[in-house]
Design goal:
This protein is 53% helix and 11% strand.
Length: 429
């Protein structure tokens, strides 16, 4: 998949149960990262995000397609992390597996799954294609000047280097790698390049990279490959930009950070070993070192820690905030679409269809600005999150219906709860 997503627990639970039944003396869970410059099945991936059912495919279908084999798809990257040895892992848990309740066992499956994904993120690779995709999608405009894009990519590269992430070897020459990636984007017709023509004044003419709305979702896949690295700085930048005042309480930024972690916990994997306050402080330290926040004091007159940001500081923070803006817009569509549940519960399948139509309408009206926000996968994650928060309530539509058809949602009677989330989300649009 693109961004690091929640692990599937079914197979993992079967493996652990087999181990408990002495199928082996020990088991090694090996986190493996496999990344691509470009994916071959790009179109089918996009159809699934838009709501289409996954089509069954055969390996021979790919091999037989001479059109696919003639195209250039770039490089494949494979990294393997240290194995997680199941025997010692379970021995470190507070209870033995036999003593655990069903709920505690399920919690253990989730913890192991999260730990595996966290290890995969540590060995994932930043590719030129993913870096350029992030620069192209960090704003909602239909084009970006070449010089401006390069400036944004250098800022992104600097942040990733600061975090000590792994780069593809080709990024040792950043300008060359970016140029090659942009050429591959242009050749693939994901973007177009409008350049200088003969006789133009070099000082007045600039190269512009243009991307159509219907191609943004194609590029989103590649942005998502490295989005998890940017999540902390994107949360902090989004919080700062949502405040109109120059001096901002660090406590308020931490509260916004906690809100983002709660609402997007099905989109991104978070390291539970670091507190929200620590994460915010790390990001603020980086932003101060790079001059993106113009001042930071240990305490204000009220004894509260604050940061100060002005003018260009806000401009420099926009690309970071822009990287997660489509997720904010997706969840906003679902919150707006909860109005469909006011009169009576609606089957999940029918509600999802309504959300897809509503998203399209909101985009055409300009209420949301990015086509990559029109994602069924994002809507489904939002539904799950709002269900956990009791904003929407799972229902069943009767015994005669098929099991899948029976699953439905109604609206909570606690109007203040849904209004609170609505107000908080709206601040970041």
């Amino acid at each position: 998949t693109g961004k690091m997503v929640l692990p599937k627990y079914g197979l993992l639970s079967m493996i652990i149960q087999a181990f408990q039944e002495k199928a082996a003396d020990d088991l090694a869970l090996i986190p493996v990262y496999i990344g691509y410059d470009r994916i071959i099945e790009e179109k089918s991936y996009l159809k699934e995000l838009g709501g289409a059912a996954k089509e069954k495919e055969k390996t021979t279908d790919v091999i037989k397609s001479s059109r696919i084999l003639r195209k250039r798809y770039g490089r494949v990257y494979v990294n393997i992390a240290e194995p997680i040895l199941l025997k010692s892992y379970l021995e470190q848990q507070p209870k033995s597996f036999e003593e655990m309740t069903i709920e505690e066992r399920q919690s253990t499956y989730r913890k192991i799954g999260y730990d595996i994904v966290l290890e995969i993120t540590k060995v994932s690779v930043v590719t030129p294609f993913a870096l350029v995709a992030s620069g192209l999608l960090c704003h909602n405009r239909r084009g970006i000047a070449g010089d401006e894009l390069i400036d944004v990519l250098r800022v992104f590269y600097d942040y990733l280097a600061h975090r000590g992430v792994k780069f593809a070897s080709t990024l040792s020459d950043l300008d060359k790698a970016v140029s090659e990636a942009l050429n591959l984007f242009v050749q693939s017709r994901l973007i177009s390049r409008i350049g200088m023509e003969e006789g133009d004044d070099e000082e007045l003419t600039e190269i512009v990279y243009s991307l159509d709305d219907n191609k943004r979702l194609n590029i989103e896949y590649y942005k998502n490959n490295i989005l998890h690295y940017f999540v902390p700085v994107s949360f902090v930048a989004s919080s700062i930009l949502a405040h109109t005042e120059d001096v901002i309480s660090v406590g308020r930024i931490v509260e916004d950070y906690r809100f983002f972690k709660r609402i997007f916990h099905r989109e991104f994997i978070f390291d539970d070993g670091v507190t929200e306050t620590e994460e915010v402080e790390q990001v603020l330290s980086y932003l101060q070192e790079r001059g993106m926040i113009t001042g930071r004091t240990a305490e204000s007159s009220s004894g509260e820690a604050t940061i100060e940001v002005k003018g260009k500081g806000r401009t420099n923070l926009k690309p970071f905030a822009g990287l997660i803006h489509n997720y904010i817009e997706s969840y906003w569509v679902v919150i707006r679409g909860s109005a469909y549940l006011r009169k009576a519960p609606i089957a999940e399948k029918d509600w999802t269809k309504k959300l897809l139509r509503l998203g399209e309408l909101m985009f055409k009206k300009g209420e949301i600005t990015r086509t990559e926000a029109l994602s069924q996968a994002n809507y489904q994650n939002a539904i799950s999150v709002f269900s956990e928060a009791k904003v929407v309530v799972p229902k069943e539509l009767g015994e005669k219906a098929d099991k899948k058809e029976r699953k439905a949602y109604g609206l909570t009677e606690n109007k203040s709860q849904i209004e609170s989330i609505r107000r908080r989300l709206f601040r970041f649009l």
